[in-house]
Design a protein that fits this description.
The protein is built from twelve helices and 15 strands. The chain has 426 residues and is of the alpha/beta class. It has two domains: 70 residues, no CATH class; 292 residues, Alkaline Phosphatase, subunit A, CATH 3.40.720. Strands 1, 2, 3, 4, 7, 8, 9, 10 and 11 form a nine-stranded mixed sheet that branches. Strands 12-13-14-15 form a four-stranded antiparallel sheet, covered by helices on one side. Strands 5-6 form a two-stranded antiparallel sheet. β14 and β15 form a beta hairpin. The two termini are 23 Å apart. The model has no long low-confidence stretch (mean pLDDT 94). Keywords: Cell membrane, Membrane, Transmembrane, Transmembrane helix.
Amino acid sequence: LNPSISYYSTHPINNHAAVNTHWAFFKELITRNVKKNPFLYFQDEKVNKLLAPVFNAGDSTTYFLRQDVEDINVVLIVLESFTADLVHALTGEKGITPNFEKWIKQGVLFDEVYAASDRSDKGIIAVFSAFPSQGDESIIKYIPKHEKLFGLPQVFEDLGYSNSFYYGGQSEFYNFKSYMLSHGMHRVVDQKDFKPSEVKSSWGVYDGLTFQRYLKDLNREPTPFFSSLFTLSNHEPFELDGVYKFGEKTNADKFKSTAYYTDSVINDFIEEAKKSSWYDNTLFVFIADHGHRLPASKWSVNNPERYHIPLLFYGNLIEEQWKGKRVSKIANQTDLAATLLHQMGLPSHDFPWSRNIMGNNYKPLAFFATKDVIGIHTDRQSISFDSSIGKISEVKNKTFTESKNQELLDTLKAYYQKVYTQFLVY
């Protein structure tokens, strides 16, 4: 059972009352063992000293977004498993996502962004709350904890925006529904809002139908709005109700085909949206929830390329001189929040783990974490550390000195020590 099923209100007290108290008591007993930090390496003073230069992105910002427009609408598209290997402009083969390639020429592409982890539950938290992965744990599972995070929708709610979240599957999955409703989303539209005959895939409604509903609703949405859609068709088992562009002989073929499909239906959405009154005043943001081993099947969980994802800002609000530009700074998925807010002239202090990529003092590096592996990636070195055995599992640049490697390793350990400490505090 998932407590998210009981959530129906944007007011936490109403949702808490709706959850069965006996069930909640026994769940608390089961999860009470989440008390120990597996990443304890240093005293707090040293942790803060190691991380100070990481989070000092500077006071000034380079703007690619027009600064003469008020009440900007934001459409945030979170792309399921949309690894960089699906995009030719990044590391992928040509022809898988032709429309995304087209939007790149009219937008601003951040081509060195890395996901927080390798799962959707962690990606959603990284995107909306800018909170890093917690190793083997996942804060979205614990409603009392994730309610203490701040979320992007709350920023816009405080500004009087109308907020909504769309997902073609069951929004109770991974507690998405409870998270969204408790973090400023006024409306969650999911599988239950479609006819049973429209639920044709293992995960729910195909992306094409979800985007059709999305456009219809946005055309009636009060402005300004902050709205997000999380795609699902590019998830295992990679099902399509039609032609597989790259065949279906292998999982890699099916993966590329579902990515091609999602790319095509988003293009249909964009082209129709251009006819709407709200389009010219809307910023579109595309980011993946995580990377994937497919289609290349060559990146282990120790390799940062496993987490390499696209981040694209698109729309008529991009300054003309910036359209088609690439920002080649190594960054984290968690840095989206601060970067977006600073472009809109808004403060980002509620997201302490997020860094403004366009800040004048931004330090290019990224962190990633899975069940056992934590990693750090810079422009000159990448180090992965297997926390289950307490040893380095991969070093990319063999010419780096031992002292330089140790410095990076200490920063990596300090980062996840502080992340997990904060997770426990919540």
